[in-house]
Amino acid sequence: DYTDPQFEQNLEEDDLRRRLETIQKSAFRCRDITRKLLRFVRKTDFDLRDHDIHDIIDGVIDDLLGPEIEVSNFTVTREYDRSLPRLTTDANQLQQCFLNLIFNAISAMPNGGKLHVLSMPDKDQKNACIEISDTGYGIPEETLDHIYDPFFTTKEAGEATGLGLSIVYGVIKNHKGKIAIDSTMGKGTTVKLTFPCA
Hints:
Number of strands: 7
Strand order of the largest sheet: 2-4-5-7-6
Strand content: 15-25%
Helix content: 25-40%
Structural class: alpha+beta
Low-confidence stretches: none
Radius of gyration: 18 Å
Mean pLDDT: 83
Number of helices: 5
Distance between the termini: 48 Å
Largest sheet: 5 strands, mixed
Shape: globular
C-alpha cells in the first residue's frame, strides 16, 4: 500500500526498507516460534545459548513493537544494569515472553502512560531480575489467581486468546526462573521475572 501512488503516502525509501525488514524479522520469528512450540510439545530440547537479555528486550521494544510505540501516547524508559552476565536462554522463547508482557502493558494503557523496564541482580548476585511496569488500569484482585490459566482473559470476546500469560509462565519455568505479578487497580502493574545467572 505504501508504494501504491493512489494512497499518496510518499514514504521515504529508508523508512520503507526499515518496515520491510521488520516484516521479514517477524516472519522468521513466527517460523522459529512454531518450530520451538513443536519441540516443546514433542519434549525436545530448547535452543539454549548465551545471550545478553537486554538485547532481547530491546529487539522487542525497538523492532517488533517500534512502529506501534512511535504512534502511541506513552513513554518507554529503560534502566539496565549492564553488569548482569549473559544468560543461557532460548532467545526466541524469551522474545515471545517479553513481547506478550510488553503488549499486555501497552493494552492496559489505551489513553497513554509510562512503561518502565528495569534489570538488576538480586541481593545474592545469583539471579538476574527483570521488572516490567506500567501505569495502566491494573488487574482485578479476584482474577490474579487465574491469570496463568490457559484461555483465561479479562478482555472482551475476540480481543484476546487468553494464552499470553500461560505461555509466559511456561517459558519462565522452562528457564528455571520465577514470575511474580503485583497489580493495583487504577495505578498499574509490575511483572517481575527472575532468572538464574549460572
